[in-house]
Write the structure tokens for this entry.
Amino acid sequence: MPTAIEFFKLLPKTNCKDCGQPTCLAFAMLLANQKAKIDDCPHVSQSSKDALEASAAPPVRTVTIGTGKEIRMGGETVLYRHERRFINPIAYALTVSDTCNVTERIGEIKKLSFERVGTVYDIDAVSVRCDSRDPKRFADAVDSAMKIWDRPLILECVPEIIEEALIIASSRRPLIYCADKDNIDIMAALAKKYSCPLAVRDADIEVLADLAERAKELGVNDIVLDTAASNLKECIERHTVVRRCAVKKKFRPFGHPIMDRVGSGEYAIAMAAMSTMKYGSLVILDDLKNYEALPLFTLRQNIYTDPQVPIQVKQGLYPIGGPSEHSPIFFTTNFSLTYFTVRADIERSKMPVWLQIVDTEGLSVLTAYSAGKFTAEHVADALNESNVLSMSDGPVVIPGLVARMSAKLRDLLNRNVVVGTTESRDIPKFLRDLK
Ligand code: SF4
């Protein structure tokens, strides 16, 4: 991304204010912070616009696999997530061999699904692999996969066999995996003909850069780089070199998403974890058990959370366990971790409760209270907005950490207000005693 000064050099510098800013420099600063679009200045010349758009393109191109339920890869602009944030989470794909029962295999893959902190996690793509060396059998396997899998596909095959499957699947925009130095021209021609993204693979990163350049020369823009890393050391080294060259040096042959093919077993999970942490956009695994998926998905969730924005849930009323007109009314902040912890402890009690979530901009209880975003007035407004006070005559329960707001809240609500627990884990006992 260009700096404000680089943007400024290409603006007309007349300070005419037609963009709504007092000066061209002020407008350039907004552009550099991605808070304005170049089209907001009606006087910028086409040549300047072209130059700005070229230099404003992200150092890593965004590549999409699939249509509808697609995977977006790359588009990253920074090396470290605290600088801005990472944009497109790494995708995990599982292999489906064309020698197996495709329907059964994909049925098993679909079962690998679980919920964590309010988000459902499952497999993002399947990679149909040609083990049969038979074009018809591979095409049939791809056809079967498409009937029961509406998410992105990867076609793992050699050039002399893949085309029959591409005719069937190209409307779904699969990733073609993969071109190497022996087949780059023919694979790139197929990728261009069927408008599909293409993976290029080599362990020598100079050769890898040449392959990406060659694919581009042959008209393929959507390219994914496989560094053929076979261990953790190679994975971190190659990924880091590729991404640093793309982001810091603007080296365009490396300005593409990175992927890995890691096999199965615990070392493969470690490789997938390394790829997740260090710039990978796609990992193909041969197999993944539930207990292996949990740490991997959790790691991805952490890496791709914006560190500058707290994870939040919406303000609103959350009935738990079918509450009645006499059930107690709990409330807490909209910081996700607080919400899910309190909710889990209420559910553990097996007692019906109305849970009111108050918008505190994602801050936790004490932080929000200290920042003046979780006051008795805020709570009263939220309770009145959701109308819960007319749905239940039960007591309003204050989080123990902010017991000091109880008198004020009692005045505002004209209602029985009791002080709850300091620790969420004590909620079940508190509810039993409240009966
Ligand atoms: Fe400068 Fe263009 Fe804004 Fe006028 S409209 S102040 S020329 S950036």
User: Anything to note?
Assistant: The mean pLDDT is 93. DSSP finds 17 helices and 17 strands in the chain.
